[in-house]
Amino acid sequence: MTKFQKITAATAAPIGAPGDLPPELIGLSDESLADLSWVDEALGYAGVGFIPVAEPARPAMERIAKVYLLNRFTKEEERRFAKLQVQASALSVQDLDNPEKDDLFEMQRFLRRFDAVSVIELNSPQTLGAFELLRQLGVFGDPLAADSTARRDQILTPAGPDEK
Questions:
Q1: Where are the alpha helices (DSSP H) in the chain?
Q2: Do 151 and 121 fall within a single domain?
Q3: What single DSSP character describes residue 12?
Q4: Span 136-159, mean pLDDT?
Q5: N or C end of the chain, less CB within 10 A?
Q6: Do residues 121 and 69 make contact, with C-beta atoms less than 8 angstroms apart?
Q7: Which residues contact 127 (CB under 8 A, 6 or more apart)?
Q8: Are 18 and 48 part of one and the same domain?
Q9: What letter would DSSP give residue 23?
Q10: Is 70 exposed, middle or buried (0-12, 13-18, 19+ CB in 10 A)?
């Protein structure tokens, strides 16, 4: 749905943030909306207008089959990932209330969601957050080293034509 920016009619200076058009103005042409000095003052639109605002395009979701994503892991990264899977699956009920085990609980949450899908959206906030957690937990090497961030980003690059 198109958003509209309220403006001062004289200078076109924006008033507030873009939003929905007031219901009583729906159906008017863009030209009529740009300067509402012609409407009844009782409506409260003296000296203002509304102009349509183009919404930013949302980036397309980059998808990859989970098997291809896992193929991007080195053998050592896969070993570290497997160790975390075992540790996370071994959490006890008492561990769930232990703040020191929060990272493993977050890993367990990630794994439940990861196991439920066959296609991964590489640029979704959930995937980015999950792979940041994997980086922090050392799957991609020393989490304090810059190369672990670069490695995470390399794994999350858009899928090639043979990986879709």
A1: 30-34, 66-71, 75-89, 102-115, 125-136, 146-155
A2: yes
A3: -
A4: 91
A5: N
A6: no
A7: 120, 121, 156
A8: yes
A9: G
A10: middle
